[in-house]
Amino acid sequence: MRVHVLQHVPFEGLGNIQPWLDERNARISYSRFHESAELPELASIDLLIALGGPMSVNDEAELPWLVAEKRFIARAIEQAIPVLGICLGAQLIASAHGAQVYPGPEKEIGWFPITAPAPAPNRFNFPASVEVLHWHGETFDLPEGAVRLASSAVCPNQAFQLGPRAIGLQFHMEMTRASVEAILEHCADELVAGPYVQTEETLRATADERYTTVEPLMRDVLTYLTRP
């Protein structure tokens, strides 16, 4: 399996996706936009993963590589290459397909539940309710043709599927305890008091059970996207 990762900042990485890839002897390449905006040929990719980051998809004037990145993601989806977008990555998929991305009614930072509609064929089905880790201030409209997979109390579009091989997740099922420590080191200033913002102390005190609950679900998403 040939996997390409779109990484926007050095402190947001693959987390618990890495062992899943290692088990499949995946060859992993990167576009590290914090270093270079170089993108590979799509023909060399079996799975594309777009990670998160603190920037906005609307920052094209300051970060012109966003334009090429969105075009690259749209072409991958058009060619039925499996694509996973996480947080900023999900917003990039939405924006690349004409949907608006904008500030949400509330920031969501911390462990809060998402709920899923009744299971249906021909799409990925989340559990009816599960607590996941959020770290975002923006949200998005669903792109045309997308199917909503999950919602939260303040964000109706928490996960969506676009075609048979692309899934966007507004939340972070990939993050491990080490991932959270890394993002706290760089983004703790975003923890401004709000109804859906947990404190640094609360995030650090998260029970291991929460991480072990979402990791199999992250694996399920990856297995679904790369199914034969």
List its salient traits.
alpha/beta; globular; Rossmann fold; single chain; seven-stranded mixed β-sheet; 28% helix; 9 strands; two-stranded antiparallel ribbon
Spell out the blueprint of helices and strands.
Elements: E1 2-7, H1 17-23, E2 27-32, E3 47-50, H2 65-78, E4 83-86, H3 88-96, E5 101-115, E6 129-140, E7 146-150, E8 159-162, E9 166-169, H4 177-187, H5 200-204, H6 208-225
Parallel strand pairs: 1-2, 1-3, 3-4, 4-9
Antiparallel strand pairs: 5-6, 7-8, 8-9
Helix pairs in contact: 2-3
Report the average pLDDT across residues: 98
CATH topology: Rossmann fold
> So what's the CATH class?
Alpha Beta
- Which structural class best describes the helix and strand composition? alpha/beta
State the distance separating the first and last CA atoms.
Answer: 12 Å
Spell out the CATH superfamily. Class I glutamine amidotransferase (GATase) domain
The multimeric state of the shown protein is single chain
Structurally, the number of domains stands at: 1
Strands of the widest sheet, in order across it, are 2-1-3-4-9-8-7
**CATH architecture field:** 3-Layer(aba) Sandwich
Number of helices: 6
Provide the succession of SSEs: EHEEHEHEEEEEHHH
Binned strand content? 25-35%
Strand tally, please?
A: 9
Q: What is the helix fraction of residues, given as a range?
A: 25-40%
Gross geometry: globular
Low-confidence stretches: none
Write down the Rg: 16 Å
Major β-sheet annotation:
7 strands, mixed
